[in-house]
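We store chain and fold; example below:
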Amino acid sequence: MILRRLTSPTLLPWLDCLALVAWGLLLLVYWLRGDLNLLIHPAYQALTVFTAIAFLGMAIARGWQLKHDRSPTPALHSALLPRRLSIGLLLLVAIAGFLIPPRVFANDLARDLNLDDLTGYSRSRPQAFRNSQRPEERTVTDWVRTLNVYPEPSAYVGQRVNVTGFAMHPAELPNNYLLIARFTLTCCAADAYPLGLPVRLPAGDRQAYPVDQWLSVQGVMQAEMVAGKKQVVIAARQIEPINPPSNPYDS
């Protein structure tokens, strides 16, 4: 009975409006709550908000058209059912978006990659390299991009480091090392990938810094043999737990 009513020729056109309203409101809610930072690169957030407003405008225009359309209601054609099912799916996804808030990518996604994947430089973007940056102003991603251009670890020995990210405990690292990692976005969360730097702890072992805990790490760069290869390592002088930032991704 419910399916018959939802697929009736009278109600079906209004599902178009409902889907547009749902997605327009969902995107605006994400923007107002700051959740767009978890899903969209900042460069595209203005376009996303414009799209949300456009969806609502289209819904109003379509609703006005349906309300004032006095032509006879066409009979339901079986060929339209796949389209209506698609609209129903869009509505279900939008409802799920309201009920299930987005969350920050962290160790549960990055742990499927090995240490070389996280600290390797092949996935970084050399064109974003900024040589004028002072070492202590570089983010995790900035460091990886810098190393992509100038990969000799010894060139960075003694440079100051001040980075934030979430903790990872790769099996390849000894217990007195952890990985400080950030996800970076090119466009949206679908293309997010993690980058990280090894951190040698000043004392104790990494169990004091739980996986996924956000940390502020200050120290200096050293060149050490880690996981069978020479690479840069942050010799930490101070590590402090912090709250996740409002924008957890590097770009």
User: Anything to note?
Assistant: The longest helix spans residues 45-68. Helices lie at 2-6, 12-33, 45-68, 81-99, 107-110, 115-119, 140-149. DSSP finds seven helices and six strands in the chain.
